[in-house]
Design goal:
By secondary structure, the chain is of the alpha/beta class. It has 2 domains: 2-171 and 223-250, 3-Layer(aba) Sandwich (Rossmann fold); 189-220 and 253-299, UDP-galactose 4-epimerase, domain 1. It has 9 helices and 14 strands. It has helices at 11-22, 54-63, 78-83, 85-106, 139-158, 189-197, 225-242, 258-269, 293-299, and strands at 2-6, 26-31, 46-48, 68-71, 110-116, 161-167, 169-171, 204-207, 219-220, 222-224, 245-250, 256-257, 275-278, 287-288. Strands 3-2-1-4-5-6-11 form a 7-stranded parallel β-sheet, sandwiched between helices. It has a 3-stranded mixed β-sheet with strand order 12-9-14. A two-stranded parallel sheet has the order 7-10. Helix 1 links the parallel strand 1 and strand 2 (26-31). It is globular, with a radius of gyration of 19 Å.
């Protein structure tokens, strides 16, 4: 079975492609390489194309005899989305609509969508369940929620089955060393902390040390990217078998604070890792942790890898 993976040359997408190949599928990567890496495309063909190019998407789906799509092509910088919302609505929302229309027209009936915990905004409590209110506070979060709403409509109207996977904080890399974590600019906490340990940065910025948490820093749920990749394959198999549409959280159900991440890195690297305290960032919740019980019940999925040594 051939699976079109939009954004398949990116960080999560490349790990998904490897898991697909190891599970007996043939991934076909569709990526404009604006933030992806050609050298990460190791488990299938690369089609260079933009998610807003409906004609090229149609041709890729039809010519490659695609049977399902895993959609990861999106812009992901929350801060940038606040200063340039049009970019996020155009690419993430219009791009997804363009893809769904191409799927409708080529009768491709299955899609796994890369969603985000950002759709919940600032929840009143944690862990977060799937039925919590959806109150995104950034254009990035808006864009993911809009896409989920579109997927619901395309399921009921056109019969396109879908799984929306609401990621928490993706981290880690392929244990075989075939893929790394390479972002430009880098915004993920763990790589930034390790850059300080390597001497590439003078210090790590910590945005707020006065949150209502045990050490005053934000707590987040870090899920290993290889566990995320497995969940995509399980979700794909679920929608094909059941012809259904659903959304699930993907996280560990456990949290680690920013200071705990820093302390773990200090312990592992034997480096002091200087910290610079900055003001809180607008819209940063004190705690974001997932309730992943629905993913376990529906997909038989459980995260297997530990991110932090505490």
């Amino acid at each position: 079975m051939k699976i079109l993976v939009t954004g398949g040359a990116g960080y999560i997408g490349s790990h998904v492609c490897k898991e697909l190949a190891e599970s007996g599928y043939t991934p076909i990567v569709y990526d404009n390489l604006s933030s992806g890496h050609k050298e990460f495309v190791k488990w299938g063909k690369l089609i260079e194309g933009d998610i807003l190019d409906g004609t090229k998407l149609y041709q890729a789906l039809k010519n490659e005899n695609i049977e399902a799509v895993i959609h990861l092509a999106s812009f992901i910088e929350v801060g940038e989305s606040v200063t340039n919302p049009a970019k996020y609505y155009r690419n993430n929302v219009l791009g997804t609509l363009t893809l769904l229309e191409a799927m409708r027209d080529t009768k491709v009936k299955n899609i796994v969508f890369s969603s985000s915990a950002a759709i919940y905004g600032i929840p009143e409590t944690s862990p977060i369940k799937e039925n919590f209110p959806k109150n995104p506070i950034s254009p990035y979060g808006d864009s993911k929620y809009f896409c989920e709403l579109m997927l619901e409509r395309f399921y009921t109207t056109y019969g396109i089955n879908s799984a929306s996977l609401r990621y928490f904080n993706a981290a880690g890399a392929d244990k075989g060393g075939e893929i790394g974590e390479d972002h430009s600019p880098e915004t993920h906490l763990i790589p930034l902390v390790l850059d300080v340990a390597l001497g590439k940065r003078e210090f790590i910025q910590m945005f707020g040390d006065d949150y209502p948490t045990p050490d005053g820093s934000c707590i987040r749920d870090y899920i290993h990217v290889s566990d995320l990749a497995i969940a995509h394959v399980l979700a794909l198999e679920k929608i094909i078998a059941t012809k259904s549409s659903f959304a699930v959280n993907l996280g560990t159900g456990k949290g680690a604070s920013v200071m705990e991440v820093i302390e773990a890195a200090r312990k592992i690297t034997s480096n002091s890792i200087p910290v610079k305290i900055e003001n809180r960032r607008a819209g940063d919740p004190a705690i974001l942790m997932s309730d992943n019980s629905l993913a376990t019940a529906m997909l038989g999925w459980q995260p297997q890898r530990v991110i932090l040594i505490q």
